Amino acid sequence: MISTSSHVSSRKPLSHPIALNAPLAGYGPVLDFRDFEAQLPEARAGQRRGLKPGESLFLQEDRIECVYVLLDGWAFRYQDLKDGRRQIVDFALPGDVVGLNEAMNAPYGIEALTPCSFACYSRKSFFQLVGRQPAMGLALVQMLARAEARAIEHVTSLGRRTARERVAHLLLELVTRLKRLDLVADTKSLDLPLMLSHVADALGLANETVCRCLSSLRRDGVLVLRERRLKVLDLRRLADEANLSETEGSEPVAAVMPARRYAA
Amino acid sequence: MISTSSHVSSRKPLSHPIALNAPLAGYGPVLDFRDFEAQLPEARAGQRRGLKPGESLFLQEDRIECVYVLLDGWAFRYQDLKDGRRQIVDFALPGDVVGLNEAMNAPYGIEALTPCSFACYSRKSFFQLVGRQPAMGLALVQMLARAEARAIEHVTSLGRRTARERVAHLLLELVTRLKRLDLVADTKSLDLPLMLSHVADALGLANETVCRCLSSLRRDGVLVLRERRLKVLDLRRLADEANLSETEGSEPVAAVMPARRYAA
DNA sequence: CGTTAGGTTGACGACGATCAATGACGGTGG
DNA sequence: CCACCGTCATTGATCGTCGTCAACCTAACG
After folding, report:
1. pTM score, two decimals?
2. DSSP output for B82-129
3. Cα separation, B140 vs B147, whole angstroms
4. B81 vs A103, A145, A245: nearest CB
5. Do A79 and B152 touch (CB under 8 A)?
6. What is the residue-averaged pLDDT of chain A?
């Protein structure tokens, strides 16, 4: 494991529960569906579903009836090939919604990376509830937009980036998302509940290759991996290593990462 | 070009314009947004935007205001890296909607592959119109679900399939989509307005590699590429070559492809 | 005709996969 | 407490797929 601890701190609640006039701009305060859940009257709260690391929320091919909001923990979506190889498609972090726009049978499975807690809604009640909270409709669109942007970046990574760039890019993405969610205490140090095999399966690489890339990034002073805890020493460098797309370079990354160089 | 002709036949209208009680099942009759457009009273029709092959609807990084429905032609979404490499993220076929859930700035550009015609709507009026046509809300969700499934397959392809498998998989995907849209006259022969470089950029390969894969698939009797027109000789074989995901094998593919073996 | 864009084929090299051995760590049971 | 085991990380050696470079071909077009 890159990280020993498989727990993810439950975050602090927002100061004011829901910003009703959230700006449409993509990079305003983050609304996520944990707020949605917090807002609901008791009776409306979704049924809970807890998962231990390694357990599945549903399997590829399962008929899925529900929309799930990940309240706490990390999970991932994956797809298996007939020949047994696995591809991790996306990581789900607290606030992410899964099972939203599938047809009948999910083309992927969901597996917990840490202990997870999901809220489950029938499609119907989910949309009813969203309809009742106008800000949540907006949040939903924003979330889908971010998920799609990530999917696109993922395709680009696998298609056009070297192994080292892919690793750097994934780490950068995760750091960025965690920051958005206020899940990183310290800017530089964070727990990723990932094994080499998860990173490898996400990036279309072999475990050994990921290991070598991490080692070389460490040798080059970009990060430290000690006692199974990842410290990013130099975010700017990491971004350089990631060979970002033209869009990525500009706003979102910059907005989330105050340019912070060597000087501690 | 794999295909000489860059025109795409405009399809026949549905016999009955909109099936209001479309089954929720993913594989019922295909509703697409060309119907939506056809249904609108004159005054509501979106403004038209025509594109010639190679022209862009918008560029990566552009602020996009509109939702676009592709009425006719082929286009593709792409992303450029800082070092100049390009990745094609997705192909858009008639009936596809683009620009739907972006935040402010598109993380990708759109370029026409054939002469294209788009209908443009402001976000607001698009959602109003969709709200007025209940079946279209359903169609929208189905379309998004299919697009997401494709994105996932794309990630899996790039991550875990060999060059040959990727090429077979892409061809299969395109054949399947064209059939769904009634855009293939003959089962076995079809025009793909693609150059090697498009396939290569979509699959994260070099032009030469794509060329070699196509040649070898031809040698092996899976397809024919004569006078720049692609004929698929053996869909079943093609599906075998594609190393499908566990889900893909079953329904959607099978439903669209009547099992058709060697015997002509 | 010459020019150009794109397709095809071969030779070669590099990046990353695979195979294998070893190390580090945690858990379990004697 | 220590021996044993299983899981995962690490490192080295070798191999294969695919990218790169280069030459040539073909078709379209002025």
Report:
1. 0.86
2. TTS-EEEEEEE-TT-EESSS--SB-SSEEEESS-EEEEEEEHHHHHHH
3. 10
4. A245
5. yes
6. 81
